[in-house]
Input
Amino acid sequence: MTAKQRYRSKMRICYDMLRVIQEEGGEAGPTRILYGANLSYERLKKYLAELKEKGLIEEVQMDGKTVYRLTDNGRMFIVQFRKMMEFARAFGMIL
Amino acid sequence: MGLSAFFVFDAFTEFFSAFTALAVAYYAIKAHRVLEDSRMLALNLGFAILGAGMLIHGGIKVKVALAVLSGIKTPPARMMPVVRIGYLVAFATQFAAYILILIAMFLGERRLEESLLIPPLALPLIEYDARTESLLALLAAVIALRTGLSYSESDSRWTALVAAGFALLALSHALLVFGGPRLLVTADISRLLGFACLLWMLVGVSRVGE
Output
């Protein structure tokens, strides 16, 4: 495994999930998040529960379907994570 | 540059560098909290040690500057060990800091001069040592090289600034190796520019996404 192919950290996975929801306009279904963040179903369930618990996303029902909506805290987390990622990158660290 | 101005400038660059290093350390601990990456903790520790060492060194330089400004003709004997210990602290902290920064990225002789007849400008002569400075120059150059290689892959201007910053720090140490204390002002300017690059990176990164 090269430095560029490090395993994603838990926070990186959370960021990837939130980024997918943001790119979908702030709301996304579980299947879109699963493919967009490249996760297994089990891990998706686990991380969705964690993101909900931390108040970064909220679960809503739309036309009988479950959709996950990005909260203000979730948006703030994305901005902060991007800044810190750039900081790490400045020192040649790939996350 | 006058004698007083030289000592004041030397102390100023030390404090500017110290506060920049501490700002990077603060940002690194913030990054550790958000990213939960242990490398950020090593980076934080490295820059915190670097900043703390420079603050101590800067404090001693202020003491020397004040003594010079008060118009002393020769430095008192008790000032010699303080000056040497100050440099020893600065070297040890920089050495430990560079090692920690390198770890984060990849995963002196005490000679007491008793002479009372030397002018104040001779104080840097007993302070900067070619062997310790060459070690620091080498470590800073390795960090610059490592970030320079990362820049060739990432193409991030922030990486370029970190690489440039450490290249200038390596240059400041190298100037003291080859030129000795007579190049202290040039070395100070090089170090000032090096930390200015790190500060620039910090300000730039903090504006990402705004």
Summary: The domain at 9-74 of chain A is CATH 1.10.10.10 (Arc Repressor Mutant, subunit A). The first helix of chain A runs from residue 10 to 23. Helices of chain A lie at 10-23, 30-36, 41-53, 72-90. The mean pLDDT of chain A is 88.
